[in-house]
Amino acid sequence: MITVRDIEQVLFDWAPRELAAQWDNVGLLVGEPESEAKKVLIALDITEDVVAEAISVGADVIVAHHPVMNCAWHPVQHVRSDDAQGRMLIGMIRNNISAICMHTNLDAADGGVNDALAEKLGLTDLEMLNEEKIGRIGTLKSQLPLVEFTHFVVESLGCNGLRYVDSGKPVHRVAVGGGACSGYIAQAIAAGCDTFVTSDLKYNDFLDTKEINLVDAGHFPTENVVCPVLADFLRRKFPELTVVQSTTHDREVIQYCI
């Protein structure tokens, strides 16, 4: 019998809790550790639609990247049915669905979010962007003009669109940071990168940065690349476990008008 605790443990073996940021909330956040797990649903986020999907497909466990109870985004002070987060938690508990979330520890882990992002963008000779192991640096097989590279990013990540600023440099040595990594712009510059692909950049990031091309490809596209990696990992570890990826939360919700 595979238990929820077994799944949590193999995920922590891959992405140790110690790699998570101090403020983060990772691991088994909802559910009974010793309950049996037969089917896992993988999603970047746990939303009301994802919980409904888990109930519909008969999943015992949702494995997600973003914590369902993220203390930095939405402090949990009550669990009520007239609140979106409360409805999710009540729905999971009533239907015996556990939630395991691997966040900044999976960002930093070997083979995690940032390695998956770098691989998706065709980068080779990867190295760490910083001591926190958040972000990677790699090189493209051949140098590209920035506009051509932005189209490649949209196609590779399935973005609905992106924002960028051109420093006048062609793209060859690229830093990536899945999710919100604007704090690492200076490190990407110091490492000699000509381009930084990340998300959630602020106006002043674009305004003030002259030394490097900035590409904001969106939070969902730069991190959802890890979901198929998570699914393959669990299938290898537990061949008898049914693992499926969400079909209700499989694209970014942000739309662009041009």
Outline the structure in words.
- With 258 residues, the chain is an alpha/beta fold.
- The chain has ten helices and eleven strands.
- It has helices at 4-14, 48-57, 84-94, 104-108, 113-120, 146-157, 185-190, 203-208, 219-223, 226-237, and strands at residues 27-30, 39-43, 61-64, 98-101, 124-128, 136-144, 163-165, 171-180, 195-199, 213-216, 242-245.
- The strands form two sheets. A six-stranded mixed β-sheet has the order 5-6-8-9-10-7.
- Helix 2 runs parallel beside helix 3 (84-94).
- The protein is elongated and about 55 Å long.
- The chain starts with a helix and ends in a 13-residue tail after the last strand.
Low-confidence parts lasting 5 or more residues at pLDDT below 50?
A: none
Helix vs. strand class: alpha/beta
Number of strands: 11
Largest sheet: 6 strands, mixed
Percentage of residues in helical conformation: 25-40%
- The SSE string, one letter per element, is HEEHEHEHHEEHEEHEHEHHE
Indicate the topology.
Elements: H1 4-14, E1 27-30, E2 39-43, H2 48-57, E3 61-64, H3 84-94, E4 98-101, H4 104-108, H5 113-120, E5 124-128, E6 136-144, H6 146-157, E7 163-165, E8 171-180, H7 185-190, E9 195-199, H8 203-208, E10 213-216, H9 219-223, H10 226-237, E11 242-245
Parallel strand pairs: 2-3, 2-11, 3-4, 8-9, 9-10
Antiparallel strand pairs: 1-4, 5-6, 6-8, 7-10
